[in-house]
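assembly run, all chains below
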Amino acid sequence: MNDINSFLSRLNSTINFSTILPEIILIVGLITIVITDLVNKGKNAIFLYKIFLVSTLVSMGILFYQLISVIAFEDLYTNNIFNNLFRFFILICSFISVLLSVDYVLCSKISLAEFPLFKISAGLGGMILSCATDLITIYVSLEFLALSSCFLSGYTKRDIRSNEASMKFLLMSGASSSSLLYGFSLLYGFSDGQVQLDNIIDKILFSQYLPTICISAAFILAGTAFKLSLFPFHQWTPDVYEGSPTPVVAFFSVTSKVAALSLFTRLFRLIFPYLSNEWHIVVELLAISSMILGNLIAVTQRSFKRMLAYSSISQIGYVMIGILAADLENGYASMLTYTFIYIFMNLGTFARITLFSLRTGTDNIRDYAGLYMKDPVLTFSLVLCLLSLGGIPPLSGFFGKLYLFWHGWKAGLYISVTVALVTSVISIYYYLKIIKLMLTKTTNPVDTLKTYEKQKSLVSSVISTKLKSSVEMAMILCALASTLSGLFMDPIIKITRNTFF
Amino acid sequence: MNLSELIHEFILALIEPGILVGSIGTISFINTTNSSFSLGLVFTCISLLYFALNADFIAAAQLLVYVGAINVLIVFAIMITDQSVSSDSEKRGIGYFTALGACSILFLTIVCIFHKINDFYSSSIHQSEYLKLNLFEQNDVQNIGYQLLNKFLVPFELASLLLLVALVGAINPARDEDEGKDIAENKKKSFVSSTSPRDKSSFF
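ok done. output:
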């Protein structure tokens, strides 16, 4: 008993548990889900989702409480505002994406219990990735996130496209993380065996080993650009997004991108400040190509999910401008605000697609024709989210893009901002194409409209006072956030300002 | 050379031909079972090499992981799949010579690098610094355990969670869906009798 006491006191003195308390709550939630599912033997699976949501909410609450303090955890974590904001973003992503996935999983007749398990583990991996300042923790959490995402994308195992998507994701993420490891190994070798990022910078003699540090930077860039789906590492994105089940795509398109953004920013800011000219040019090139490629190919798509995949490639191109434009007084404010708004816009669009595909079973853009007649609420909320993605005032997407491009222009990235403006106009074209398709009445009777008539529309259930579906709650949340965040832009910017490190 | 160095050289001279013979056997045996067993020989000899180089933890890990898990898995896979013993085609195309050229260049590069490192580290300055580090007196396993639970606690525990999720994820696509069929039948009945399950989502 004495030994245990002394051990615990020594543990408490070396490790400060309150810093990773949000992650610990998520882990407790994970274990509770596994045990509850085993005890209930597969019945009452909705309860598992409630556990997930409760643990995410508690975790968010504790993270709010910690948002101001800066505590170090054995040099593996640093809780500065940048990291905490990213953890908060990932918690929001997990919360909303689980809300919109409950009905889908129920209707698709697959087992329910493992789904929240994988979602919690992916969220956990993303959260630890946002805080890690240690090469080993970065790698393990990145693999955690990638592995859980891969299992999520292959969840509907009877669908052959889902199998193909998860296979592609597994192979490509394996290849990219091996190149990331090679870059890490070069850094490890040159810094005389140091694993923590701060110690690595102290010990590397940049002047002596410059060519090999450049090689290491190139490999790390290749590894992280895969997760961000920048050009030319974007090839996996359309196939994986089209094949995976829709709520899983919603989860991917925000969580893994947000986590990869935090990783990218931290690595390149901390380790390669001497090379900032070189990697600025390369990232600028990658961002310009992603924007051009993503928007141009999205024009020609016929499947909604594939189009959203290409549009998310271009959105990440915009966010890269924000990373390049970071300076002392504003920090990464533009990138963080745009990421925050992007989360809501993207999840809102995916929520409506999920609802639509639950009712009609199709993903073709042509089948959205005349939706206004059948379901005006769904149409209008989808219009709001798509316009926000395109960047039309007064929705919040406009304010996010405005801030981003303004910062980019101030920082001297004239070419990138010009290309971004042009490609934004192209993106407005294909979003408006869908809106026009939805709002106009079609003269030819389409089969999907007939199947739509059999099910009750959204209007009646919203009119009744009780919200019966969690997807609807997610939709309303995202719609509100997409539109009203524009009004609350100033406090958001103020919070994200002092994030330069 | 004194006696300990002589014994060391002798042991190395025993292990290295084992690795060489095993790897040649892996690629040139026609029967794939023989090939996998000679792969096991290669792994075992590498583990003995680690013992001879005074890295006991890695040697034990190599035996457990490579020989005990990976090689056994390879042998299982080979024995389960029905392999018809086919003869290799004798024609050696362009791919053969390209691979031969690339591998020989890689080999020469590695040999040159090792020679340069050997010359660099065998100068007297580095030897005295190396002896100062006093590496031979520490216990590897204790050191590793100490670091794992102090400095690297978070990745260590995270790796254990990763194993759990990997297990669940590996079993999930592969298991039998008898319960899935029952749930599907129940859903069909409820769909026919009442309104669609979406309206009666029992979430709240």
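DSSP finds eight helices and no strands in chain B.

The mean pLDDT of chain B is 80.

not gonna interpret more than that til we talk
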